[in-house]
Design goal:
Layout (H helix, E strand, L loop, with lengths): L2 E6 L7 H14 L5 E6 L1 H4 L6 H17 L8 E4 L4 H11 L4 H5 L2 H8 L6 H15 L5 E3 L5 H18 L7 E3 L29 H9 L18 H9 L2 H13 L3 H27 L2 H30 L6
Parallel strand pairs: 1-2, 2-3, 4-5
This protein binds adenosine-5'-diphosphate and tryptophan.
Length: about 325
């Protein structure tokens, strides 16, 4: 069976880059797999978030965001990592076969060390917990951004090692990098990222979004000078939110000469057209945490049926199952 799984870390404001680069493609992908799982990696967030109120809010922000953007919790499994205790047992068992050298080589860990960040054991063993998230559900494919590819490869290495030691018990997963997804530029032209403080929040109110769009960096070409739409970040973003007809018409306006201020106003408008109905849905969902929790708990219940079956196999394989 083709099984895809995506973990989403509740680590801060969701922005346009996350929406276009991760959420939209991930939701479209559900069509291609017999089973797809989406979970909020709230326990992973604990490696960096130490403010309980903030973490709580970010978990529910994220759940409401994915549902508002079209994730169907009946056709997928949507749950919180923290609701699946089997993940943590499997993480321990995988940790017991994980060579320390493998974790020493993890890019994310090495980058945190190089940046002089405080390193807790959670950051170090992050890839083992991630391997458990994946392997527990017999996942075959893990769609990820490039920065997470190595972590999925570590999961595959651990599943293969387990199978060499204990027989063919686990399904080794493969990472899948979507090459079609473009990197969305931020206000300063660099990759939009919360670490660069250059983001347009997905759920910004129209006036705030417009103000941010007006801040996008542009060159000093005068308004009447013809402009190359392909070379313009404002046009790139416009096209991603507009219909093909709107994009074609805008391309002509660039060629004829459009002032950057007008180009930005048009971008803010087309973003609002597309996002206003989603934001209304988001606000309604976000206002009812109990309902969100119920949706996530239902997903967790279904996910645990699979998790328990995997753990029965794993326990038997390593020799800790109870006698029949
Ligand atoms: P950030 O860089 O803001 O911290 P994350 O690392 O949390 O964002 O990214 C979450 C998801 O969104 C990842 O799948 C990542 O590939 C995607 N993503 C983030 N920023 C962009 C961007 N500017 N363009 C395209 N995709 C992005
Ligand atoms: N590490 C991922 C990130 O930072 C989140 C994540 C946790 C994940 N467990 C996962 C992603 C399992 C895919 C599969 O974005």
């Amino acid at each position: 069976m083709k099984v895809s799984l995506t973990g989403i870390k509740p680590s801060g404001t969701v922005h346009i880059g996350n929406y276009l680069g991760a959420i939209v493609p991930a939701i479209e992908m559900t069509q291609r797999y017999e089973r797809s799982l989406y979970f909020i990696a709230d326990e992973h967030a604990l490696t960096t978030v130490e403010d309980p109120a903030k973490l709580h809010a970010q978990i529910f922000d994220l759940a409401a965001t994915w549902l508002a953007c079209g994730l169907d919790p009946r056709r997928t499994l949507f749950y919180r990592q923290s609701s699946i205790p089997e993940v943590f047992e499997l993480a321990w068992i995988l940790g017991c076969i994980a060579p320390k050298g493998l974790l020493d080589r993890a890019h994310a860990y090495k980058a945190a060390v190089a940046a002089g960040e405080p390193i807790n054991v959670g950051i170090y063993t992050y890839p083992v917990l991630m391997a458990a998230d994946i392997i527990l559900f017999d996942t075959t494919v893990v769609p990820v951004g490039r920065d997470q590819k190595q972590h999925v490869e570590i999961a595959r290495d651990l599943a293969e090692k387990f199978n060499r030691l204990y027989g063919r018990v686990l399904v080794p997963p493969e990472p899948e990098i979507n090459e079609e997804v473009m990197t969305i530029p931020g206000l300063d032209g660099r990759k939009m990222s919360k670490s660069y403080d250059n983001v347009i929040p997905l759920w910004a109110q129209p006036a705030e979004r417009r103000k941010l769009v007006m801040r996008i960096k542009t060159n000093s070409q005068p308004p009447e000078e013809p402009k190359d739409p392909e070379g313009s970040e404002i046009f790139q973003l416009y096209r991603l939110f507009a219909s093909p007809e709107q994009a074609a018409a805008m391309s002509c306006r660039y060629a004829a000469g459009i002032g950057w201020a007008d180009a930005k106003v048009a971008l803010a408008e087309v973003m609002e057209e597309r996002l206003a109905p989603l934001r209304a849905r988001y606000e309604a969902l976000r206002a009812d945490e109990t309902a969100l929790e119920r949706t996530l708990a239902e997903g967790a219940g279904r996910a645990r049926t699979i998790a328990c079956a995997t753990m029965a196999r794993v326990r038997a394989a390593v020799g800790i199952a109870s006698p029949a």
